[in-house]
Write a structure and sequence with these properties.
about 70 residues, mainly alpha, 2 helices, 9699_t:CDS:1
Length: about 70
């Protein structure tokens, strides 16, 4: 049973305990946010890797341009 389902079950029960229901709901929400931000951290790492690759390519292009300029002169 998911945390949200458990929260809703507590809402429908006769022995509703607002503190327990709130804790259950918040625990589920925290887990959701952790998964979401973990996914974003992975994307950020991928983007940083691509940025490093682009910087390396930029350096290579500058070197090639300099070599071509030196050959033409």
């Amino acid at each position: 049973m998911t945390r949200t389902a458990e929260y809703k079950r507590h809402l429908r029960s006769n022995t509703f305990d607002i503190e327990k229901a709130t804790i259950v709901f918040l625990e589920g929400h925290v887990k959701y946010l952790q998964r979401r931000f973990k996914h974003r951290e992975i994307k950020i790492k991928e983007l940083e890797s691509h940025l490093k690759d682009l910087d390396k390519l930029k350096e290579d292009v500058i070197k090639l341009k300099n070599q071509i300029d030196s050959l033409l002169n």
